Amino acid sequence: MTLPKPKHKKFINKKKFIKIAKKVQESFKEEAKYLSEKKMNDGHTIFHRTYCFN
Amino acid sequence: MMDIQYSTALIASIEHKHLLLDTNVFRDAVSKPSVFFDFFKDLRKADVTLTTIDFVKYELMKGSSSEVKYKDKEESVNTIIDAVIPVVPETYQLVYKLIQRYGIAGTAVNITDLFLGAILMQYKGNIYLMTRDTSDFIQSIFDLSFVVNIPFNKGIFTYGIYQYTK
């Protein structure tokens, strides 16, 4: 098995790259917020279950 | 303002070779696109093939809250890479070998990192890995060939450029 080697390397436009990067960064921020809220909620759930178990 | 810092020998060493990118590199690239764009451009000028594996793409794509956001992520990844390295039956077998090599240190290593490591084992001198996860790619298994530093607002991010030569 050989490594894939494209015939032509991409030379993309910097402005275009920055524009798409900004949009994706917003998505990552949204996901980080969701994760942080989920962790907080799950934490409460775990605490609640432990509390009930005891 | 200080930008990306790396040894001048880096480009010469990885010239005409493949550079495998870990998930954190893509995440950081959208956070500091101008710096990473110039870095990737310099690598391409040296005929470096920028690559990743599907496991890294899965990590990046998951969590997209809409189809548009999913497509934007897909476009950003495809803009950076030149090719995706396929995971083949040999790669799966090398993961088992790598797990044995890690021993107890492999307990916390995630599946994606195991596959990235297995790809390094598979193609040895022809490929390097760039990752910010410098604690899981232990030097008793992988060679830390170079270090790349990029200043961010929250501090300096250090990336390891690893190879497997054993």
Structural summary, described in words:
The complex is a heterodimer of chains A (54) and B (166). Chain A has 54 residues and is mainly alpha-helical. Chain A has a domain of 29 residues. Chain A has 1 helix and no strands. Chain A starts with 13 loop residues before the first helix and ends with a helix. Chain B is globular, with a radius of gyration of 16 Å. In chain B, helix 2 crosses helix 3 and helix 6 packs across helix 7. The longest helix of chain B has 14 residues. Chain B has a 6-stranded mixed β-sheet, with helices on both faces. Chain B has a single domain, classed as 5'-nuclease (Rossmann fold). Chain B contains 7 helices and 6 strands. The mean pLDDT of chain B is 95. Chain B is an alpha/beta fold. The chains are: A mainly alpha (54), B alpha/beta (166). Chains A and B meet through helix 1 of A and helix 2, helix 3, helix 5 and strand 3 of B.
Characteristics:
heterodimer; A: mainly alpha; 74% helix; 0% strand; elongated; disordered C terminus; B: alpha/beta; Rossmann fold; 6-stranded mixed sheet; globular
Tell me the major beta sheet of chain B: 6 strands, mixed
Helix content of chain B: 40-55%
Note the gap between the termini of chain A: 57 Å
**Total of DSSP H or I helical runs spanning 4+ residues of chain A:** 1
Radius of gyration of chain B over all CA atoms, rounded: 16 Å
Structural class, from secondary structure content of chain B? alpha/beta
Distance between the termini of chain B: 39 Å
Integer-rounded radius of gyration of chain A: 22 Å
C-alpha geometry of chain B: globular
- How is the biggest beta sheet of chain A arranged? none
What percent of residues of chain A are in strands?
A: under 5%
> How many E-type strands of chain A?
0
Mean pLDDT across the residues of chain B is 95
